[in-house]
Backbone:
């Protein structure tokens, strides 16, 4: 059992399996040096080369490469790693700090990489300068598959976006990058065998094979496997622009420009489709060294299959009762192709069918039920359902969704063993290179801890504290979740409204995927430059305010600061109001700002009532309930996050 | 005469020579397109290629390359430019916007580059989306030489620092990058002829010749000449580490680690020195295509020359009365070498000597007097004295220093013509790649306007408004003056003190060069990670507060917001106090914070007295004067910038 107060003080994220801090500090100064012994590996050399500038940036001390007989950090790797990083390779490490030296030991280079990340996190400002606590850490992951899935089809993400997010993944010990490379809205990789895939299916926005090799090498250098996904037979419109003959209905086809479930699907009754996929997968299997290969398989709506007389005839001929059976047939053929090219097939949970061999992996997305079902049926499985970032859930909500609890808690130990881990799912309907980082980070760190740390690690307050520290360090690595948020607010605000817009933005969050789709008809070309695109998925201000209100109502102090905060919110409207008419990005925010101001006014009146110990009039209470109900409705695709706290204040006044 | 209210509304910086705005807007949306006609030039093609993503970033609209018969921006260049950009090449342009099209015409590609920057600055948020005002602009620079000097010796600046600052220069139409490549503390360029220069003189921190070519090409692409400086015969210790035989005293020599005027100097009496310089300058003259070549020439203290019997004998033999005459001899020899390699020599104002031919340029740094003197003596001249960024003057102070006013106002028109312009001087004693941008930007924009815009452009309030807008756009170009400021504050603050530290930082500025040197013994390795390294040279908060106080004392409103501001400053101390002991970077700020809090208290008491129309007691007034005197003293190498405003409040109360 980890003493939580120490863990919070150390600010490690994810929390290691075992931590034993002690008194004393190891000072980090200009004389910092690293020594490497044991089995050599270029990944270790590269990680050390990154560590030096990383520490210089973290501390502001001009740390350079210093040779020392007795280095500050002594790294010792016991064995070589696999030539291609394997699922289940030993990722453990031991890190022991004294007042004079840090010793990092691991059986495999992967553990050294993780241990270096932990070492960096240990360093903090202290009275004697930058230093790290004396500590003994014995760490290993809970799950072997800890992934981040990234959709680069619906909105194109240049390679820089991928690379900086790989750095973020490494910082929180995620180890699988699941690269969703094709969908209706874009085919994002160069095929030399079928070049019309990218030439006609990508608007020129695709990764060359050289870039793909660069990403794979960059990921390997950081202990991360790269699994490609090519989604078939549906979500495949972009393939059909160049190769309409693959489809179950005649073309021509155009790149999808909006979102949803589209009719176009590959024709499982055509041999030519399998020949095409064999050639294509053969090409990609050589490019991607990882032994897992994702074929999508989700959301086949059957429209084209049902309308095709030849497919109907094929189903009859092969005794395929329905479209599920037809897709299972397709998947069996596909699995044989994937296997022939040396890979295990992975698919979204629709592919689950007892007809498939047991060496495939099921990725649960429609709910945790399919994870348990797949495991019971003997399949390896991955959980993604609770980790869809576009659902705009809080870090705490996702953090507390454990792969082995709820639906999975009834699994036998053997079945639980088949739960390999999970993946955070990033879908890009409402993402651009500007705002993607703020959707992924820091919330993904919470899920990374769920995948890595002991199951009983559930202290949400500690998570948020550590996450705030990590969030800043991620920016040092090159992530832009904080700086692009500011940049987007500055763009929306124009030259004069930045401060009040910041105040408004700090208490709102965007609606989720469904809310966006209901609000307006989006296409791939719709500018994503509004406050709902910039605002953070989670309002730290609202969370802290909620806590203050709850503490105050439970009898603690803090009434003055709550009042001051409410006054600032109430007054903010006056600063913003002159800005709404001059700027179309500000215009839609007028009702949001008016509601925040009114809510703050309601909160202040409730505070006055509480101060005076006098219940407000029924009419006033009724008015506040109407205001709260109105303020709960999304406006400008934003949700005001302080509503629950104001509700508590009004309810407390009404209960006098 | 430019109508100032329009100029401010247009927010152009530097203000063009002639601006005639009219009613109507040109909308910028996804259909934005560019057409190029007239004489082609790769600089124009590249500028257009940069413009598209620049507008996408500015607006958040997915603008791509669109072909259109009638493009939004039509560019027409009349003539080809010089193969190597020349001093005095025509930089003028005409830019005319209607509600349907922008037309940019120039006689030379340089004008097109400047006009594109103006076009970008015209675009702003408006009720109908992003758009630009209908306007007619006829623009040309006032001075042909508008430079930024950068010392990369005392602290090493990697090539990224140089490149992003070239982008900043282009944005404000500066056209000379003066690259100070050698000094006592480092020799920063690869010489293939004398490789020990960089091998022994740079700690491995130097630009390869390929990198230099990249910088030159990048600068040319942005309308910027690159002039190298190799400072001789003094400030040359780093040369002597590899080639001690050049020195006037026997070696060995080590790279300088602290600052100041050092004894080592080259020996003007040795023929081998001229042979060396001939070979070296020959190599560099080929690498740098610009026709100007800076040889430094400043701060020869004569210690080694005076101590050398052979030099004494040489002086006697050549009838050189003193060290100035000896340096003039050296410079004559040097000038012949520089000229032989096809260049004009440029030197700091110590080189001024009637013995030198008139085709050299004198750069005035010790004061504007030498500028006038050089011009009167028939030399071309450059003004840098008022534009030393490390003097920590405000943008307004530097803005109002005009090259042709003060000492130069008595020059004849012909002599004035010899004032080519000026250069902003950046010296890196207290600069790192982290904080350099915040020293250069946005203050340099003010000086750029001085060099470009009409002499009567002196509206400081307008300058600050436009500068704030430009400052944000510079970050979009990749400059880090705002984001690194935040990053450094976050590092100093640690996880819990960021907001109160921001408040403290917003009212302080670092002391100047002299103040730093008096405060402690710095070396090249001293960490520059303290608040005095992060704090901005100019406090916008203090400037605005000063204005509010002056307005209020003159009878205008604003007393409530002044009171609120003072309360926040007074209370900030309570939030910071718990942080001082846990963190060595915070520790030194305790007295600064205490003083700010006390000043705010004094201001509040003065306000109370003003409200009550009652003069405070003499004893209180005396106490406040003592407090103000104490708060004026630098602490932690910081100056509290709200002292003058508090002084005004106290004086007003005392005058009741």
Residues:
């Amino acid at each position: 059992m980890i003493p939580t107060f120490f863990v919070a003080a150390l600010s490690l994220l994810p929390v290691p399996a075992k931590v034993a801090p002690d008194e004393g500090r190891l000072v980090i100064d200009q004389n910092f040096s690293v020594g490497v012994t044991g089995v050599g590996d270029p990944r270790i050399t590269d990680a050390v080369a990154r560590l030096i500038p990383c520490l210089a940036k973290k501390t502001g001390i001009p740390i350079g490469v210093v040779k020392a007989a007795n280095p500050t950090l002594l790294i010792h790797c016991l064995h070589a790693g696999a030539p291609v990083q394997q699922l289940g390779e030993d990722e453990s490490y031991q890190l022991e700090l004294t007042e004079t030296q840090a010793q990092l030991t691991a059986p495999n280079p992967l553990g050294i990489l993780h241990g270096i990340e932990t070492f960096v996190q240990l360093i903090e400002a202290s009275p004697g300068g930058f230093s790290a606590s004396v500590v003994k850490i014995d760490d290993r992951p809970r799950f072997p598959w800890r992934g981040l899935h990234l959709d680069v089809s619906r909105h194109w993400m240049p390679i820089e976006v991928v690379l900086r997010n790989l750095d973020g993944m490494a910082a929180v010990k995620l180890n699988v990058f699941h690269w969703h490379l094709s969908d209706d809205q874009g085919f994002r990789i160069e095929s030399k065998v079928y070049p019309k895939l990218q030439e006609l299916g990508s608007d020129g926005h695709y990764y060359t094979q050289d870039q793909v090799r660069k990403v794979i090498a960059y990921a390997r250098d950081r202990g991360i496997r790269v699994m490609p996904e090519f989604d078939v037979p549906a979500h495949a419109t972009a393939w059909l622009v160049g190769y309409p003959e693959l489809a179950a209905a005649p073309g021509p086809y155009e790149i999808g420009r909006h979102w949803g479930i589209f009719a176009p699907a590959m024709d499982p009754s055509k041999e030519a489709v399998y020949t095409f996929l064999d050639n294509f997968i053969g090409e990609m299997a050589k490019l991607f060294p990882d032994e897992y290969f994702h074929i999508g398989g989700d959301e086949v709506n059957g429209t084209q299959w049902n309308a095709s007389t030849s497919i109907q005839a094929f189903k009859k001929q092969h005794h395929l009762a329905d479209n599920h059976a037809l897709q299972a047939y397709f998947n069996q053929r596909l699995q044989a192709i994937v296997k022939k090219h040396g890979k295990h097939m992975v698919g979204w949970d629709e592919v689950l069918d007892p007809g498939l061999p047991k060496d495939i992996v099921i990725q649960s997305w429609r709910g945790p039920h399919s994870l348990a079902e797949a495991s019971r049926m003997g399949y390896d499985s991955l959980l993604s359902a609770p980790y869809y970032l576009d659902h705009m859930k809080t870090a705490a909500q996702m953090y507390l969704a454990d792969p082995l609890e709820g639906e999975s808690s009834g699994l036998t130990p053997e079945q639980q063993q088949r739960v390999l881990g999970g993946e955070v799912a990033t879908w890009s309907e409402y993402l651009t290179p500007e705002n993607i980082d703020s959707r992924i980070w820091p919330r993904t760190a919470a899920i990374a801890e769920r995948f890595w740390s002991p199951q009983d690690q559930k202290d949400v307050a500690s998570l948020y504290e550590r996450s705030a520290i990590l969030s800043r360090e991620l920016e040092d690595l090159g992530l832009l979740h904080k700086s692009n948020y500011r940049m987007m607010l500055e763009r929306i605000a124009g030259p004069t409204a930045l401060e009040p817009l910041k105040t408004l933005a700090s208490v709102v969050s965007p609606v989720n995927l469904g809310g966006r789709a209901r609000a307006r008809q989006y296409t791939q070309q719709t500018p994503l430059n509004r406050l709902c695109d910039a605002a953070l998925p989670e309002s730290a201000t609202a969370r802290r305010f909620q806590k203050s209100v709850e503490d105050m109502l439970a009898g603690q102090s803090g009434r003055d600061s709550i009042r001051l905060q409410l006054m600032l919110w109430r007054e903010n409207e006056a600063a913003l109001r002159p800005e709404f008419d001059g700027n179309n990005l500000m215009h839609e925010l007028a009702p949001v700002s008016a509601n925040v101001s009114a809510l703050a006014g309601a909160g202040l009146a409730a505070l006055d009532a509480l101060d005076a110990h006098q219940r407000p009039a029924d009419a006033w209470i009724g008015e506040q309930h109407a205001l709260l109900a109105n303020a709960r409705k999304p406006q400008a695709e934003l949700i005001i996050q302080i509503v629950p706290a104001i509700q508590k204040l009004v309810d407390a006044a009404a209960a006098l």
About this structure: Confidence is low (pLDDT under 50) at residues 1-8 of chain A.
